[in-house]
UniProtKB/TrEMBL annotation:
Residues 279-507 form the Peptidase M1 membrane alanine aminopeptidase domain. It comes from Anopheles coluzzii (African malaria mosquito). Its EC number is 3.4.11.-. It is a lipid-anchor; GPI-anchor. One of its GO terms (molecular function) is metalloaminopeptidase activity. Keywords: Aminopeptidase, Cell membrane, Disulfide bond, Glycoprotein, GPI-anchor, Hydrolase, Lipoprotein, Membrane, Metal-binding, Metalloprotease, Protease, Signal, Zinc. Belongs to the peptidase M1 family. This is Aminopeptidase. GO terms for cellular component: cytoplasm; extracellular space; plasma membrane; side of membrane.
Length: 939
C-alpha cells in the first residue's frame, strides 16, 4: 500500500522534494512508541488474545454479495462458504467479523470423494472487542476438512474502510454512487465473515449481484454474467490464486475503462474523467514490462490481468490488491496541460510501488504485520527503481536519497522510534500504527544498502530465489536471510565471525541507526567508531552495535572507480591509512549505507574547500549527503554549527537538484527560526547569496520541451526561495505570467504553476485572486484543485484571506468542497505570517463550525501549526488569546503543547544554535557573486 500524505500546507509543497510518501503513515502517528521491556511483554500477551488459534486454517472462500448501491442504498446481504482445514480436535471455530449480522449458519463435513455432509447448525456468540464470532460445536470435530456456510447482512461503511460507499458528481451534476473495498490491514472482516490474518491464505470464488446499469470488477477476470429474475445481474469471477484475504478487492460502479488488451491491463475511472487515464495505462504497461524483465518471474505467470481504478474517495492513497490496484484520483489520473511534473512523478512512482507489490506482498506476503517492512520496503525501493527502468531519461532513481533516505534519517533519529521488525498488538489501531516511515522509508533504505552490496545480476537472482522459494506463502526475516545468504555466497566477503543473519538482524531488530565517526590521526591511521545517532543529543552509554558496510573515496579518486566494501562490526577500530595529510577522505560514498558519517574538523574543511573550488570532484549524491549529515550532526552537537554553515555556502556553485533539495531543508529550518527576528535581514542576505548565481541562469516561468526532470525540480526550489526572499525580478516575473493567463488567456505551464500562482498573487490585482478562485470552482481535476487551493492560500491581502477561509466552512460563498478540501484551505494560509494571522482571527470567530465540519483533531492540528509559526512576543500574545477563546473545546494537553512550542521558538535566539547562526551571519559579508570567490570574513 502506498501511504499518501496529503501535503496541504503549501509552504511544504513548494519547498520539499515531492509529494512525500505513503498514506497510512497518517494513521501511524499514534502514541504507541514505548519500547520498554515491560510494555513489550504486555503487548505480546494482548496480541495473543486477538489472534486466531493455529488449528483453524482456511483453504477456500465461496463468497456471494448482493448490493443496490446504484440507488445509494447502504444495505447489502451475502453468503460465504468458508472451507476449513481443522488440524486438531476442536469444539470451537473462530471467525472474524466486524459490524455484520450473521443471520444463519450451517456446518458441513467435506470429503473430496463425496458431497458435503450436513453436520449441524451452530450456536455462536459475538466477541465485539476481539471482533470474533465464536461458534460452539456440540460434538468435537476430528481433524479433517469442513465447510462453514454463513448468511449475513451488512451496511456499506462511510469511512472509506472495509466495503464502503462513495460517490461522485457526473457531467450533469448528478450524484452517482460507488461501492468499493479497502481491506488492508484487517478490514476484510468488515465486509464478510472470514479469517482475517495475512498468513491464512486461501483461494476465493466471488459472485456479486448488482443493477445492470453498473458493472462489477474484482481481482480476477469475469467468468460469467447471468441475469436474475428480479432484473438484476450476477457477475461471477474466476477463482483467485491462494492469497491473503486482505488482498481481495471488488468495485461496483458505472465506471468506464481504457485498455491495452495485449498487456491485459485496464484503467477504470468515472465517465467524466476517463480521458485522464491514458498515462496511467501507458505507465502501467511500461512498468510491468520492466519489472517482469528485472525480476525474471513474469506477472502473467501468476495472474491473468491487472486493472487500476481511480477513486474519488480512498483513504489509503493506493492499494496493491492482486490484479485490481486502487488509487485516489489525484495519484493516478493525468491530464495533459494541467497535471504538473511533480504530480506525474507521484503517479509514476506510485504505480511502480503498487506493481512491485504484486510480487512482494501478493505472491509472497508478510507472515504477520511485524514484518511489514518485507512488503513495504521492497515497494518503496522499487517505486523509484521501477519507474526509472520504465522511464530512464527521467532519472527517477536520483530522487531516492533526498526523498526517502534523508527524510527517514530525520524521523528515525528519535528516541521513540521502533525497530523494523516490531509488533504493537493485533487491534486495528495497533496494526495501522505500523504503517509508518520505518516500514516504508527505512525498509526501502536498508534494502537499498543490501542491494548495493551485490552486483546487479546477483541481486536479481536473490529476488527470484526469495520469491520462488516462498511463492503463494508468507515470509519473515528468516526467509529473506536465507535468500540473501545464497546470494552473498562467493560474491560478498563478510568479516570473520559475521554471517548474513547477524548482519541483517543488526539492522532490522534494533531501533534507530548509527553515526560512523571517522577521526584521522594524521599519523598514518584512522579511528572509526559507531554510536546510535539521536537527533537531539549525544548518548555515551548506548552499547548498540551494527554491522556496518562502508566504502571510502580518497581525494583524486575517479568517481567511476569500483569501490571496495569494508566492514565495521565493533564499537571502535583503528584502521591504517596512507592518505596524505592534506587530502580528504569521503566515507559511505553516495550515501549507500543507512547511517550518518562525521569527520574530524580538518577533514571537514578539506571537503569544504573542494566543494567550493571543484564542486564536481565530489559525487553528486555525496554532496547532498554532506549537507544533510553536517546539518543534523551540528543540531545534535556532534559538529560545530559553523562547519555545517560553511559547507552549506558551497551551494552557490551547485547546479544539481539533489544537493539543493538537501540545502532546501536546512534553509527552511533556519528560516522558520529567524523569521520575525530583528536580524532576519542577515539571513535574507545569506539566502540571496546562495541562490543568486543559480537564479540568474533560470527562466522561472517557461519550460523547454527537452528539459530534464531534475532541472524542473531545481528551478522550483530556487525560484521558490527567490520569491520568498522577495527578489523583485522573481515577484515581477511570476506576477506577469499570472496576469498573462488572467488577461490574455495565455496559460501558465503546469510545471511552473505552483510558484507562479502562489507568488504572482502577492503583487497581482484582486482580479487575479478571483480568477484563480473561479478556476478552482470550475475544475474537476483533483490534483489541479489541490494546487489551486494551496496557491490561493498564498494571498497576502487580509480581505481575500478572510473570504477564502470563510468559503471553507460555507460562508457567503456556498461552495461544495469536500471535507479534505475544507481542511486544505485552512492549512494553505499557513504559508505566510499574514495567513497565520488571518487564520487566528478566523478560528477565534468560527471555531465551532470547524469542529462540527472537520472534527476536534483538525482544530487541534491547526492550533499546533499556528504555535509552530509563533516567533515573537506579539505573535505569542495572539496565540494565547486564541487558546483562551478555544478553552472550552480544546483539550488542555493541546493548549499546553502549543504554549510550549511557542516558548521554545521565542527562546531559540538565545540558544547555542541561535547564537552560533547569528554569529556566523554577522561574521560574513554575504553578497551574490558570479565568480568562484569563497566566503570571506567581514573585515
Amino acid at each position: 500500500m502506498r501511504l499518501h500524505l496529503l501535503c496541504s500546507v503549501f509552504l511544504i509543497g513548494l519547498h520539499s522534494a515531492a509529494i512525500a510518501a505513503h498514506p497510512k503513515v497518517q494513521h501511524s502517528e499514534r502514541k504507541l512508541n514505548t519500547l520498554d521491556p515491560v510494555s513489550l511483554q504486555e503487548v505480546a500477551a494482548q496480541e495473543l488474545r486477538y489472534r486466531l488459534p493455529s488449528y483453524i486454517v482456511p483453504t477456500h472462500y465461496k463468497l456471494y454479495l448482493e448490493t443496490q448501491v446504484h440507488t445509494g442504498n447502504r444495505s447489502y446481504s451475502g453468503s460465504v462458504d468458508i472451507h476449513l482445514d481443522i488440524r486438531q480436535q476442536a469444539k470451537t471455530i473462530y471467525v472474524h467479523q466486524r459490524g455484520l449480522r450473521i443471520t444463519s449458519n450451517e456446518l458441513y463435513a467435506s470429503n473430496p470423494n463425496t458431497n458435503l455432509t450436513f453436520l449441524e447448525t451452530l450456536r455462536y456468540t459475538e466477541d465485539a472487542e476481539r471482533e470474533f464470532a465464536v461458534f460452539a460445536i456440540r460434538r468435537a470435530l476430528a481433524p479433517a476438512s469442513y465447510v462453514l456456510h454463513l448468511d449475513f447482512e451488512g451496511e456499506l461503511r462511510v469511512d472509506d474502510d472495509g466495503f464502503y460507499l462513495s460517490s461522485y458528481l457526473d457531467a450533469n451534476g448528478t450524484r452517482k454512487y460507488v461501492a468499493s473495498t479497502q481491506f488492508q490491514a484487517i478490514s476484510a472482516r468488515a465486509a464478510f465473515p472470514c479469517l482475517d490474518e495475512p498468513a491464512l491464505k486461501a483461494t476465493v470464488e466471488l459472485g456479486i449481484k448488482h443493477h445492470p446499469s453498473y458493472k462489477a470488477v474484482s481481482n480476477m477476470p469475469i467468468f460469467a454474467e447471468a441475469g436474475d429474475l428480479d432484473g438484476n445481474v450476477v457477475t461471477y469471477f474466476e477463482t483467485t490464486p491462494r492469497m491473503s484475504i486482505y488482498l481481495l478487492a471488488f468495485l461496483v460502479s458505472d465506471f468506464l475503462y481504457t485498455e491495452n488488451e495485449a498487456a491485459a491491463q485496464r484503467v477504470y475511472a468515472r465517465p467524466n474523467a476517463i480521458n485522464q487515464t491514458l498515462y496511467a495505462l501507458e505507465a502501467g504497461v511500461r512498468i510491468m514490462d520492466a519489472l517482469d524483465e528485472h525480476i525474471g518471474l513474469p506477472y502473467r505467470s501468476y495472474m491473468p490481468k491487472v486493472d487500476q481504478v481511480a477513486l474519488t474517495q480512498f483513504s489509503a492513497g493506493a492499494m496493491e490488491n492482486w490484479g485490481l490496484c486502487k488509487y485516489r484520483e489525484e495519484v493516478l489520473l493525468f491530464e495533459p496541460g494541467v497535471t504538473t511534473y511533480r504530480a506525474q512523478t507521484t503517479i509514476t512512482t506510485i504505480i511502480a510501488h503498487e506493481y512491485v507489490h504484486q510480487w512482494f506482498g501478493n505472491v509472497i506476503t508478510n507472515e504477520w504485520w511485524s514484518y511489514l517492512w518485507l512488503n513495504e520496503g521492497f515497494a518503496t525501493l522499487y517505486e523509484f527503481l521501477g519507474a526509472d527502468m520504465a522511464y530512464p531519461e527521467r532519472q527517477y532513481r536520483d530522487l531516492f536519497n533526498v526523498q526517502v533516505v534523508q527524510r527517514v534519517l530525520i524521523t528515525d533519529a528519535a528516541e521513540s522510534t521502533r525497530p523494523m521488525t516490531f509488533s504493537r498488538g493485533a487491534t486495528l489501531n495497533a496494526i495501522l500504527s505500523l504503517f509508518d516511515n520505518v516500514a516504508y522509508s527505512k525498509g526501502g533504505s536498508v534494502l537499498q544498502m543490501f542491494r548495493l552490496l551485490l552486483p546487479d545480476a546477483a541481486w536479481r537472482q536473490m529476488l527470484r530465489t526469495y520469491v520462488q522459494g516462498n511463492e503463494f506463502g508468507t515470509v519473515n526475516t528468516d526467509n529473506f536471510v536465507a535468500a540473501l545468504t545464497e546470494a552473498f555466497d562467493g560474491v560478498v566477503s563478510l568479516p570473520e565471525g559475521t554471517d548474513v543473519e547477524r548482519f541483517v538482524q543488526s539492522w532490522v531488530n534494533q531501533a534507530g541507526y548509527p553515526v560512523l565517526e571517522v577521526r584521522r590521526s594524521y599519523r598514518g591511521e584512522m579511528i572509526l567508531s559507531q554510536d546510535r545517532f539521536y537527533g537531539n543529543k549525544i548518548v555515551n552509554n548506548d552499547f548498540t552495535v551494527w554491522v556496518i558496510p562502508y566504502t571510502m573515496m580518497e581525494q583524486g579518486d575517479a568517481q567511476d572507480a569500483l569501490l571496495e566494501w569494508q566492514w565495521m562490526t565493533s564499537k571502535a577500530v583503528r584502521v591504517p591509512s596512507s592518505l596524505p595529510n592534506d587530502e580528504w577522505i569521503l566515507v559511505n560514498v553516495n550515501q549507500t549505507g543507512f547511517y550518518r558519517v562525521n569527520y574530524d574538523p580538518s577533514n571537514w574543511y578539506m571537503l569544504i574547500r573542494t566543494l567550493l573550488e571543484d564542486t564536481a570532484a565530489i559525487p553528486m549524491h555525496s554532496r547532498a549527503q554532506l549537507i544533510d549529515d553536517s546539518f543534523h550532526l551540528a543540531r545534535s552537537n556532534r559538529l560545530d554549527l559553523e562547519i555545517a554553515l560553511e559547507l552549506l555556502g558551497y551551494v552557490r556553485h551547485e547546479r544539481e537538484y539533489p544537493p539543493w533539495e538537501a540545502a532546501n531543508r536546512v534553509l527552511g529550518y533556519f528560516h522558520g527560526r529567524m523569521r520575525g527576528q530583528p536580524d532576519y535581514i542577515l539571513y535574507e542576505l545569506f539566502v540571496d547569496t546562495l541562490i543568486g548565481d543559480v537564479f540568474v541562469t533560470l527562466d522561472i516561468t517557461t519550460v523547454a520541451p527537452d528539459e530534464r526532470l531534475l532541472e524542473k525540480y531545481l528551478r522550483q526550489v530556487i525560484s521558490s526561495w527567490a520569491c520568498r526572499m522577495e527578489i523583485e525580478s522573481c515577484l515581477t516575473a511570476t506576477r506577469d505570467a499570472l496576469e498573462r493567463e488572467v488577461f490574455d488567456a495565455e496559460p501558465v505551464h503546469p510545471d511552473v504553476s505552483a510558484v507562479v500562482y502562489c507568488y504572482g498573487l502577492r503583487t497581482a490585482p484582486t482580479v487575479a485572486f478571483q480568477y484563480l478562485f473561479g478556476k478552482l470552482l470550475g475544475s474537476d481535476n483533483r490534483g489541479e484543485r489541490q494546487l489551486l487551493i494551496n496557491a490561493l492560500g498564498c494571498a497576502n491581502d487580509t480581505e481575500q484571506l478572510s473570504s477564502y477561509l470563510l468559503a471553507a466552512i460555507g460562508g457567503e460563498l456556498q461552495v461544495n468542497f469536500n471535507a479534505e478540501e475544507r481542511l486544505s484551505i485552512l492549512q494553505s494560509v499557513l504559508s505566510s505570517r499574514q495567513g497565520v494571522d488571518a487564520l487566528i482571527e478566523f478560528l477565534t470567530e468560527n471555531y465551532t463550525y470547524v469542529v462540527s465540519l472537520l472534527g476536534p483533531n483538525a482544530l487541534a492540528n491547526l492550533v499546533q501549526s499556528i504555535a509552530t509559526s509563533t516567533n515573537t512576543l506579539d505573535e505569542e500574545q495572539m496565540l494565547i488569546a486564541l487558546l483562551e477563546q478555544l478553552n472550552s473545546v480544546l483539550p488542555a494537553s493541546v493548549s499546553a503543547s502549543a504554549r510550549t512550542t511557542a516558548s521554545i521558538n521565542l527562546a531559540w535566539p538565545s540558544t547555542r544554535e541561535g547564537l552560533l547562526l547569528r554569529y556566523f551571519l554577522e561574521r560574513y559579508n554575504f553578497q551574490p557573486v558570479q565568480s568562484d570567490t569563497v566566503l570571506q570574513p567581514d573585515a
